[in-house]
Every structure is written in structure tokens, then in C-alpha cells.
Amino acid sequence: MAAAAISIRGLKKSYGDNQAVAGVDLTVESGEVFALLGPNGAGKTTTVEILEGFRRRDSGEVSVLGADPAHASAAWKQRIGIVLQGTGEFDELTVGEVVRHFARFYRNAADPEHIIERVGLSEKANARTHTLSGGQKRRLDVALGIVNQPELLFLDEPTTGFDPAARREFWGLIRDLSHTGTTILLTTHYLDEAEALADRVGVISRGELIEVSTPSTLGGRNQATATVSWLGGSEDTDQPTAVVQRLAQEFGGEVPELTVKRPTLEDVYLKMIGQR
Amino acid sequence: MRLALAQGNIELKQFFRTKEALVFTLLFPVMLMIVFGAIFSGIELDGGITLAQYFVNGMIASGFLATGFQNLAISIPIERDRGVLKRYRSTPMPKWIYFAGKSVSVTVLAVIATILLLAVAVTVYGLDLPTSAAKWGTFAWVSVLGLIACTLVGIAFSGLAKSGRAAPAVVTPIALLLQFTSGVFFEYGALPQWMQQFAALFPLKWMCQGLRSVFLPESFAVQEVAGSWELGRTALVLGAWCVGGLILCALTFRWTSKRDG
Predict the structure, then answer these.
(1) Rounded to an integer, what distance in angstroms lies between the CA atom of residue B112 and that of residue B108?
(2) Is A152 inside a domain boundary?
(3) Is this prediction's ipTM beyond 0.90?
(4) Which domain holds residue B63?
């Protein structure tokens, strides 16, 4: 396997008395989609902005594509794509003008028209950016983040304010990028987003990374007791299949209102951050 | 260099499509010139010129103040609030390209403003354009130094405004204060002495005076407070503001808003 795209050891950052990041260790492998999940104010953006080179850390070791982002060179920025939190407002410029302009800054820029098409803004290419909807502005941000065909893409809460259809469309775009080998570090507070996109998830709360695992095993979710319930009863069990078979025999066929439920990612997540 | 011009081009596109900026920065000085020129019509000053002719020099200098100082000190904080600056910083674009783009756009705007104002001054107020190369030379260096000083101070000032919304409220009164005390709307020599001394600390007074040396007859020089055009001192003060402005820029410029640290 190639060298890790991101490697963090003992990262700390405080603002005055507020310890925003309290000793984070994390490795993101090359080609991976990693989601940082956490409530607002948990330290997601601070962590990501340190990795992007926008903020200085207080202590710890950080390596992003083999370099320290605190001393980011132009050559390093050529290889990185950044989609910041919040939308960029280019006001009276058109989508096409903004993307073409940003493409000029990169040696390895993709064809701007192709990028605009890729984020689904072709019909808006000649529209002034202030006329775009919130979701469309965000897609323009993504276009600027991928116009240099980055090896590593940061996405800080990319789909905030999207309607469900736009979110799903956006997920498709991220999967495409991932399939072409782009390493992606995503922050989100949408659990479905992390579940849909990420190879691994890290839950961050009060500046600490409390668990890192795959979405399906987070918090021991895959081994958690299942709840089998039916009309007239319910049972917590490690062997739901056996319980269902037994019930089928008891009822002589269909079990009325049968459900087998395992904790959702949301249940697990809320329990994790609630504990603290 | 190509990148700097592209950046300037983007800045200009943005400017010309923003109606407020267009009206405020380019048309407002012309409107003021017409309004005040009409009010001052018929008033003659010692030295064989009309107050309107005196006033147009101040308006041309104010045009530099508007395109350099006011324009940048207001538009940069807005761009910072909108996340435009932070997005530029996330690219490999060298920092100087951004400032070069602003300088290109300020220069183009200042040239347009000056041509507009001179056209009105000549056609409406009978201002005589100088015929000697030396006078045009003075016009060139006063304009260039003045515009550089205004641009640098405008960029430096952009770092002081807390938000884009607050910027016009801070910048506009400062510009007006300087205009009233530097001999734009009133004859500088007729102002109280303390006001003259205050204005002499800032570039606008010297830009106005330098322009008067170009567009007003030699006979008017004795009407200046110092009894001469003081071109040497003008160069010195404007040069000092260029250097000071550059230092201030380095100290105060911010790519991100306070909110995001």
C-alpha cells in the first residue's frame, strides 16, 4: 500500500481556554474515503483547517501528502483540493468565469467545461453566481476544489443545505472521484452521508477522536444485540435467526408484524457522543 | 504576469457588473463635480481663476481617493466575508497576484475617472489643459504617487474593518473628512489653520495641490498657503505615504475573517 495520505499524531489546538482539538491521532490511507463525524463545535473544522494549512497547531505532528501543511508550498497546493465550510460568494461573476479563472492557478487543471458538467452546473455555466441556489453555489465550491484533479480532497460539510435529491446526486460525484483514486477527507454531521460514502468513520467529540472504524462496525454495531419484535412481544437476542424460526413454528407460518432491528448508525453515534 | 492581468480582468468584470460600485466610485465624483460646479459658478478667486476651476482639481484627486482608497477598503472586506479570499489562499496562486489584480483594476478605473472628470472640467468649466511636457510630467508623477498611496492605504485599511458590512460606515466618513479639510470643496487657503495642518498630514491635500500646479496658471501659485506649489514637499509626503502604506499592508492584511480565526 502507498504511504498514508494524512498522518496525525498528538494534534492539539486551543483558542484561549477552549481546547478545540485535544490530542488527535489519525491516519488516512491513500485512496481512502474517510469521514470525520461529530456534533457542531467538536473540532472537525479546526482539525481539517490545520490539515489544509489554514490554521496553526499548538502541538503534534502532522503530515499531509508527505509535507507539513503549516509550511505549505505552492507545489503542495497543486496536489490538494479544498472545499471549505460555507459557500464562497463570487457575486457578479459567472460560474464559467470563476471555474476558468481558478483553473489558471494549476498546472494540472482539468478542462473547466468538463468540471462544470461533472458537478451538474452545465446549464448554469453562464449564470451569475449570485443567482444560484444554495446547493448550486456549493457545487461551484466543489468544482473549484476538484478543478486541479487533486490527489487529496478535503470536503468540510459539503452538503449542508442540500435537498435530499441534490445530496444523493452529490454522493454519486464523490463516489466517482473516489473510484478514480482520489483520497477524500470528509467532515459531516449527517450520519447517512458518512454511511453512504466513507470507507472508515472517525467520531470526534470535544476535540477527541473517540472511535475509528468502518460505518458498519462503529460502536460494535454489527455485534450488538438485535431486537426481534412481533404482535404481542419482543425479545433481545444475539441469535435473531433462531428466534424468528422458533416464532414461525409457534405461529405456524407468518409471524404478525415481525421486525428484526439492529441499532442504526445514528443510535450508536448518539450513544457515543451522549456518553461524554 | 499573464496571471496578474487575468486577475485584473476578473476584478474589472466584477466591478463593472456591480452597479453600486460603478455608481459610487466612477459616477459619484462626476455628479459631485457637476453639482458643486453649478453652485460655485460665477465665483472668482484671486489669481484669475474661478472657484469651479479650483474645485475640479480637488475632484480629480478625489477620484484617485475613490478608486484607490474607498474602493479597496470597502470591497476587500466584503470579499473576505464572502470567503473569496480564503478560496484564493487555498490555491497555489502567489499572494502578489491578488494585489497585482487589484492594482490593475484600480489603475484602469482611475484612468477612466480622470478622463471623465477632465472632459467635464474642460467642456463645462473652461479648464485649460496644459501645453508643456513638464506640466504633463508633473501630472503623471502626482497621479501615480497619489494613486499608489491611496491603493496601499486602501488595502491596509481593509484589514481594520471587522466586516464587509461595517466597512463603508468607517471608510466613507474618513474620505469625506479629508475632502472637506484638504481643499476639495472649499479653498484650502481659506480654511482655519488647524484644519490645514491636519489635512497636510494626509495625501489628499498634496494631491490636490500638485494637480493645481498642473491645471491652474502660474499666477495662482502665490495664492497657495506656502506661496508656491511646493512640488518637492508633495513628492516627499506622497512617497512617505507609499512606504507607510506598504508597511501597514504587511501588518494588517488578513485573508480570513476574524470569525474563523
Answers:
(1) 6
(2) yes
(3) no
(4) 2-260
